[in-house]
């Protein structure tokens, strides 16, 4: 993800009339060959294996940290204490306790902190949010959102830090994919009040890449059935995070249905927006979307956006909010939302263990 951030920053000039310039000046990674890769970036003058050297650099204002989840708390706290602002990666600490410690420190030190979640900056998702805010759906019936992967279906896929509790966290797939799923519902004010969670561990070991096998002890799939109150009525909200969803390669989706209207979007059909309308007849209208992010770019309106584009829009959003010109656009995930997501995931673990519905405060 570090290289994704470097890519987005290195083509900052595609943002039209964007009033702030962000530049990559320093990089830290333990991996020598990765550090070498960053040498191609002319603005990047500090390459180090020691993050303490990076955060001591006076030229650095903001640090984007993308490391395994067990390292989030210590590195995020060190960044804040070095007087830098932070674009954190999800899940914002390995568990609720870590997330609260980071959020509290950010508040105490008055640092600007946001957490990464880029899909809501795709044009399709921006339209979903606008449709919901248009208030034309009547009484809401149901909300479904999810983020689905499938490469773990292959039992020969080697183990990595995301598949072990000690480095990924007990929340497993929820920590890995969950922030992406809750960003839009939380931004719309849809907070889960209770949860019934179905969590699955499918393969319990994987090749260790050295000829042997290693334990694979994280949850692979999570289905959270929650309820939220909208306009005084309880609405079911189903949130799915799966590493084993047959045929799904990074599929992010959302569906919001009401008695009068609805909306559906999935990165499976990345330029297609579906809008439901109940008139004399009931219709689903399919619209081809173009290239319309929160911030205009040089790319023509008919072209198709992709992952690097929404990631850049997210960085632009971070910078715009930090500099005070977001002007009503959708913000990045803030520390309160990140902590709320951990409350949900912890309640989901409790629900799974007790096989019961768990209330959230
Ligand atoms: N926003 C997204 O779409 C998205 C996608 C994938 C991962 N992530 C998140 O990004 C973070 C990293 O995931 P990834 O997929 O990039 O992992 P990765 O394993 O590909 O990269 C992690 C990097 O951290 C480096 N590293 C480890 N310890 C370090 C230390 N002490 N100091 C400096 N560098 C260190 C490693 O050398 C490695 O290059 C995680 O929090 C993950 O959840 C976000």
In short:
The chain is of the alpha/beta class and 361 residues long.
Spell out the blueprint of helices and strands.
Layout: H1 2-10, E1 26-28, H2 32-38, E2 46-48, H3 51-55, E3 62-65, H4 72-81, E4 85-88, H5 96-109, E5 113-115, H6 123-133, E6 140-148, H7 165-168, H8 173-187, E7 194-200, E8 205-207, E9 213-215, E10 221-230, E11 233-242, E12 251-258, E13 261-266, E14 272-278, E15 282-288, H9 307-323, H10 335-354, E16 358-359
Parallel strand pairs: 1-2, 3-4, 4-5, 6-11
Antiparallel strand pairs: 6-12, 7-10, 7-16, 8-9, 10-11, 12-13, 13-14, 14-15
Helix pairs in contact: 1-9, 4-5, 5-10, 8-10
The structure holds nicotinamide-adenine-dinucleotide.
What does this structure look like?
β12 (251-258) and β13 (261-266) form a beta hairpin. The strands form 4 sheets. A 9-stranded mixed beta sheet has the order 15-14-13-12-6-11-10-7-16. It has a 3-stranded parallel beta sheet with strand order 3-4-5, covered by helices on one side. Helices cover 31% and strands 25% of the residues. It has helices at 2-10, 32-38, 51-55, 72-81, 96-109, 123-133, 165-168, 173-187, 307-323, 335-354; strands spanning 26-28, 46-48, 62-65, 85-88, 113-115, 140-148, 194-200, 205-207, 213-215, 221-230, 233-242, 251-258, 261-266, 272-278, 282-288, 358-359. The chain starts with a helix and ends with a strand. It has 361 residues and is α/β, with parallel strands linked by helices. The protein binds nicotinamide-adenine-dinucleotide.
